[in-house]
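TICKET #2291
ISSUE: user wants both folds in one file
ATTACHMENT 1:
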Amino acid sequence: MIKRFGIPESEQEDAMYIMTMQSMRDELDALLGSFQLLMTAVASISLLVGGIGIMNMMLTNVTERIREIGLRKALGARRRDITRQFLLESVSLTLAGGILGILFGYLGAFGLAGLAGGIFGGEGMTITPVIGIDSVLLVAGICVGIDIVFGYYPARRAARLDPVESLHYQ
């Protein structure tokens, strides 16, 4: 090839580059690994921000319901009961948001697949997204776990309120 194209001796080392399918596959794997790491970082930050939002909302909820908490404690509710109530409310809120997120994720995946199939697909070619139930359950479990971590402090704060002071709160 060097003789055929008349490549000077000083440029012969950089004149040719051989790329095999294995090297292309390795480069693609490295690119996808970097992309996965980036998406993991973005998702982690999103979970942290969402958890802080849930905690702030639950703290506001506790503040608005101080009289109710005081009344429940005066009538015999234990700290454990108050903690469970607020954690259950927090988990319910998160699961409702998670269900909406999963629904919009499915709709978005099928919408993008239809769009990509129309643009890139040939005649009779369709693109079908595959979303496994294990992925959905994993995401729901992570949502509940994040919620319990961030919802525990407001729930314990509500449970530790003094009933006498809570009933006097305006």
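ATTACHMENT 2:
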Amino acid sequence: MNMDDYRNQINDIDKEIVKLFTERMAVAGKIGEYKKENNLSVKDSRRERELMEKIVDMAGDEYDKDLRSLYSLIFELSRSRQRKIVDKPSELSVRMDEAVKNTDNLFPEKANVACQGTEGAYSQAAAEKLFKHPSLMFFSSFEKVFSAVDKGLCRFGILPLENSTAGSVNQIYDLMAKYNCSIVRTARVHVRHTLVAAKGTKLEDIKEIYSHEQAILQCNAFLGTLKGVKVIPCENTAIAAQKVAESGRKDIAAISSKDCAELYDLGIIQENINDMKNNFTRFICISKKLEIYPGADKTSIMMILPHKAGSLYKVLARLYVLGINLNKLESRPLPERNFEFMFYFDIDESIYSPALKELLCEFESEAQEFRYLGSYSEVI
């Protein structure tokens, strides 16, 4: 036999597989109708477990793992089909529909906005990118920004989520798990770090440099060229510039922005000191109320999955089956649970897509814990 003969055999087998698969899904649909009439649960773990063992026994040891992978997906698809028949609209689906209906058509131009840091912070630049006339309130920590939004002191909060050079700001993920806030929009800010100091200060005069830990990471190569200089993390790049200005010293500097140099009357020692010139920070805009504005094409969720093999695979398989792109996957350890994690997902899919609601409702029913963080668009 030659290659064409083998391919023809595969084609014939595939015809049979497709025929049998469609028959199986049709029967799964009838089972769903029966479960609906008799008020039975869609998921029957005992039945699936027994069926899996029978299938594996029929094929023998050689294909054990392959069949378990294949039939795990088939069981997922069968359950999905049954849920469409059995389940009423979920509470999450209703919440999303109400948010789309009740949110204004236009993103607000004016609002009270909480930012971390002080005047001149990059979070201010993000706020001014999202709002035409933001009324800014500055707080000393990320948690106080969340708290201000949670308590209604500010309608929105602006927080850095990730940087293209230094990666994720892990504290933000932990705070999103702690506070019941929603993401309503995101913005990317081009970050160009500048070394600033009191006017007249030269590079060789500097003994200490202050900045936020993320900015320090983003300027690692530049800082590596400086000998005998102590690098000190502080709350914010703008606070670092303010600290230098108020000190009156000419032997300290800050990694900050050109705007901060002007704002705090500092001299610029060197511009664009970040390692990567294409350096962007992605900021999220949070609110206490779930708001979904027109054009929302990204969704963020958090899940705690069962601590067993295949849990994350099943989630990723559902995304693949529905043709939905996963833009980001992040895991954060749960301090109160040994070796268990909260998974954070950014999904690219329109809020108007039926596949998105189907996906989220399935995740909600399968996960140990599930948080819908919001659907939004991003300003670039």
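RESOLUTION: both attachments delivered.
EXTRA DETAIL ON ATTACHMENT 2: The chain has a mean pLDDT of 91.
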